[in-house]
Design brief:
Elements (H helix, E strand, L loop, with lengths): L8 E4 L7 H7 L5 E4 L9 H6 L3 E3 L6 H16 L2 H9 L20 E5 L3 H11 L4 E5 L5 H6 L2 E3 L2 H7 L2 E4 L13 H5 L6 E4 L8 H10 L4 E4 L19 E3 L8 H19 L12
Parallel strand pairs: 1-2, 2-3, 4-5, 4-7, 5-6, 7-8, 8-9, 9-10
Bound molecules: glyoxylic acid (2 copies).
Length: about 280
């Protein structure tokens, strides 16, 4: 609040909550908030609109990197990579055995994509290489959109009950907060694996913990948690069937560079009073 006083532009990270109070602390000369992220749930868009402040984000440039990470998590959870690595480091590997660390098949499995926007579609394309059946649930996508990436649009219930993997690609908002909760987890297969590279609060984490300990679903791989950072003593981290990484979906050298340039372009345009090249248009 002190540091924004008198500025015309704010470059924010997804960890910075920019609400009306922060905007007012900056003052009436504030013209632009440029978020170094594609997601903008950390910004009160309505408050910015009321004050005539432009908001920018970084869409497109992180689509492929994030889809890659979602697929990496899917594969790592299916084939129990983290458990296998820990098993070796702990000196437990004595000999090859037919039943050590058995996991789930990826090829031919059914993938359910919740949120078929840019990233969801990029995940669907990757799944085609693994001959997966791809189901998608997305209020904004059309059947033709889905078909263009080999996916079939279905209801949320159908997706949950049929998918071997469920991957989340929705923005966080009032409609998607705790979309994955006790009820929706119960609709999933007991062998299902949940992958979240979207936002932590899309999942009710207490319900997820319960589902993973009670065998309601098999495993989860999370790039995002609630809260972030997830404390090292969090109960989820005691579970062998949970893989958590520290919000690294867009963390490649090239992607972060493209995001930086895009965020800088938005910031400069806003300060100069020009339309932002990548403005947030919905809230
Ligand atoms: C990362 O989570 C982003 O929204 O860019
Ligand atoms: C595994 O390494 C095999 O040869 O089947």
């Amino acid at each position: 609040m002190q540091q924004v006083r008198g500025v015309e532009g704010i470059l924010s990270l997804l960890t910075d909550r920019i609400d009306g109070e922060v905007m007012d602390a900056a003052g009436p000369q504030l013209k632009v908030i440029s978020n170094y992220a594609v997601g903008y749930d950390n910004i009160d868009i309505a408050a910015a609109r009321e004050r005539g402040i432009a908001v920018g984000n970084t869409p497109g440039v992180l689509t492929e990197a994030t889809a890659d990470l979602a697929f990496a998590l899917l594969m790592a959870a299916a084939r129990r990579l983290a458990e296998g690595a820990a098993y070796i480091r702990a000196g437990k590997w004595k000999t090859w055995e037919p039943t050590t660390l058995l996991g789930a098949d990826i090829t031919g499995a059914t993938l359910g994509i919740i949120g078929l926007g840019r990233i969801g579609k990029a995940v669907a394309k990757r799944a085609a290489g693994f001959e997966m059946r791809v189901l998608a649930h997305s209020p904004s996508a059309t059947a033709a959109d889905a078909a263009s990436v080999g996916a079939t649009l279905v209801s949320l219930d159908e997706l949950l009950s049929q998918s071997d993997f469920v991957s989340l690609h929705v923005p966080l908002n009032d409609k998607t907060r705790h979309l994955i909760n006790r009820d929706t987890l119960r609709k999933m297969k007991p062998t299902a694996i949940l992958i979240n590279t979207a936002r932590g609060p899309v999942v009710d984490q207490n319900a997820l913990y319960e589902a993973l300990t009670q065998g309601t679903i098999a495993a989860a791989a999370l790039d995002v948690t609630d809260p972030e950072p997830l404390p090292a003593d969090h109960p989820l981290l005691d579970l062998p069937n949970v893989l958590v990484v520290p919000h690294i979906g867009s963390a490649t050298v090239k992607t972060r560079e493209r995001m930086a340039i895009m965020a800088a372009d938005n910031l400069i345009a806003g300060v100069q009073g020009r339309p932002l090249p990548h403005a947030v248009t919905s809230g």
